[in-house]
Amino acid sequence: DTAVSQTPKYLVTQMGNDKSIKCEQNLGHDTMYWYKQDSKKFLKIMFSYNNKELIINETVPNRFSPKSPDKAHLNLHINSLELGDSAVYFCASSQDTTENQPQHFGDGTRLSIL
Amino acid sequence: KQEVTQIPAALSVPEGENLVLNCSFTDSAIYNLQWFRQDPGKGLTSLLLIQSSQREQTSGRLNASLDKSSGRSTLYIAASQPGDSATYLCAVRAAGNKLTFGGGTRVLVKP
């Protein structure tokens, strides 16, 4: 009965490959997010979707393309992976976009680029 | 541009001692502030959320204060236990439900 689940948990791949990370939430939330946590442990928002519509895009390279087939899912596809993409990627969700709603996080996907 | 700083970056205390974790932010125009716990290899668990109109929030042994005008929040953990060992992150929320995170404080509670 995990609230926010991401797959895979670990992803090791070579530079130049294309990969996808999936996220699903069973909380009935309208809003979902992708965050990147770098080697210094700083978490930064990448994207946010509300009811399948993109609402936040934080100057992320266009090699990163989020896709929301429905409001319970927000997947992240990355083209032409680079060494600097190695990080932990977290998915999160909140009830809606109002600022008093807490965000609930998944366990992260650890992406390592060889 | 909002910047969030957490000091110290790491903290080690003997079991039973109280923990004091500090968070500061540069732009006081926030909606709320949220404290999270992150265990190694795990995601973030929300601990406390303080609205901008509130001064503090309490949950069990945890108490978080917020002084929006000075851009500070403090998380107190009373009578620390080895199970409290984790990284604690604070995040401030601006318009659009965007969270800006600090770098975290890594806590070790020694038995």
Describe, in plain words, how this protein is organized in 3D.
The complex is a heterodimer of chains A (114) and B (111). Chain A is mostly beta strands and 114 residues long. Chain A has strands spanning 4-7, 10-13, 19-25, 31-37, 43-50, 53-57, 64-70, 73-78, 87-94, 104-105, 109-113. In chain A, the strands form 2 sheets. In chain A, strands 2, 4, 5, 6, 9, 10 and 11 form a 7-stranded mixed beta sheet that branches. The N and C termini of chain A lie far apart (34 Å). Chain B has 111 residues and is mainly β. Chain B has strands at 4-7, 10-14, 19-25, 32-38, 44-51, 56-59, 62-67, 72-77, 86-94, 98-101, 105-110. In chain B, the strands form 2 sheets. In chain B, strands 2, 4, 5, 9, 10 and 11 form a 6-stranded mixed beta sheet that branches. A 5-stranded antiparallel beta sheet of chain B has the order 1-3-8-7-6, with no helix packed on it. Chain B starts with a strand and ends with a strand. In chain B, 37% of the residues are buried. The chains are: A mainly beta (114), B mainly beta (111). The A-B interface holds A 4, 31, 35, 40-45, 48, 55-56, 90, 92, 94, 97-108, 110 and B 31-32, 34, 36, 41-46, 49, 51, 87, 89, 91, 93-99, 101, 103-104.
Features:
heterodimer; A: 114 residues; mainly beta; 0% helix; 55% strand; globular; B: 111 residues; six-stranded mixed beta sheet; five-stranded antiparallel beta sheet; 59% strand
